Amino acid sequence: MEHRKILRAILLNAKNSVRLGTDRINRQAISSVIISALNDAFKRNITVQVRWGREEPSTIKNKDLINIQKVINDIKLETSNRIEISDLPSNSHAKFLTMDNDLTVITSFNLLAFAGNGLADEEITDELGVTISNSNEIGEIIGSFPKPKPIISKTKKIQRIRNKKL
């Protein structure tokens, strides 16, 4: 099944929580269909947590970080601030989707990013994912993902970007 359909199905069928890890975020991937599925999940009191990005903020170009933060702010506004997502990258390359600790998808596909030309990354490159439904294995796999580390910037430049209102 195509990754976008899996994301929507998980959002629509979750009973408690959804956790998502992705390398990148861009606006093309957050369609009205995904926003609608997110808001439906929130109406059912589902917790949705997103970890994104593998770069340290100091290695991201200022313009790119500002653009990503604008997308994140848009997502927060469109979901009434119910989505749990950091404004800064988590320094993780993990790409996964977990529903209620009952189902996990681990994939090479960036779940919240498109290539930018209207096609999903997986339509351009050969992407692969695996679905796991054994709760013991899911607990072990998810437990092996490092907790996001708070990123403390030593540069005033990045601090200004963090504090800038978009």
Keyword list:
37% helix; single chain; six-stranded mixed beta sheet; globular; alpha/beta; 166 residues
Verbal overview:
Helix content is 37%, strand content 16%. The protein is an alpha/beta fold. Strands 3-2-1-4-5-6 form a 6-stranded mixed beta sheet, with helices on both faces. Helix 1 (3-13) runs parallel beside helix 2. The longest helix is centred in the middle third of the chain and has 17 residues, at 62-78. The relative contact order is 0.21. Mean pLDDT is 78; it is low at 148-162.
The tally of domains stands at 1
Average pLDDT level: 78
Structural class: alpha/beta
Summed up, the helix count is 6
Instruction: Write out the CATH superfamily name.
Output: Endonuclease Chain A
And the CATH topology? Endonuclease, Chain A
Low-confidence stretches: 148-162
CATH C-level: Alpha Beta
CATH architecture: 2-Layer Sandwich
Tell how many strands the DSSP assignment holds.
6
Shape: globular
Strand order of the largest sheet: 3-2-1-4-5-6
Radius of gyration (CA) equals 16 Å
Beta-strand residue percentage:
15-25%
Separation of termini? Answer: 36 Å
Q: Report the biggest beta sheet as strand number plus sense, adding barrel if it closes.
A: 6 strands, mixed
Query: What fraction, in percent, of the residue positions are helical?
Result: 25-40%
Order of helices and strands: HEHEHEEEHEHH
